[in-house]
């Protein structure tokens, strides 16, 4: 597979270091077995043609698959550019999980037999992230917020943008996610509970109690689970 020509077909103008990393990875995939295999040109093209008609997928190029209708792709344009996400056939969550193709490829090559769920991700952002990465994530969040308020996207693209904002939010800025617990989209409310629970963000405790009692169905269930975990770990 000629990576550079394939990506140019979709106007994905990537830096040389990313192209080189992909070329090197293709060679390793040819010589070794990977649970997540890199797809051939025809597979990628067919999938891209399908995804290009769906708004929330339009900035993503899928490159890897587990051969169970799940894919790993990267954002080649837009605010989340160059970050890596997972395209599941069961539940759509296009929030970034890896900060770059470099970090994803490194994780994959060190754990060739692992599936997506077993890989250690870069996001949600932990306290160990370096200042430069945090600054880049905050800039991305600002661009996503601007897009949300200026374009007023439909429900599905909006939900995916909100998922991305929550994944990118640094551990020292979790207070900005508390308003998400009041969102009118039950999937956004649910994800806000999960992210705040992942970080064990105790300042959200009282609000999580409120959601567990009065939230939407998904939010109530997620809040109850998070609260139970918080209590058990205290």
From TrEMBL:
Coiled coil: none
Species, as recorded: Paenibacillus azoreducens
Cross-referenced Gene3D superfamilies: Leucine-rich Repeat Variant, SMI1/KNR4-like
Superkingdom of origin organism: Bacteria
Xref: InterPro entries: ARM-like, ARM-type_fold, Knr4/Smi1-like_sf
Protein's recorded name: HEAT repeat domain-containing protein
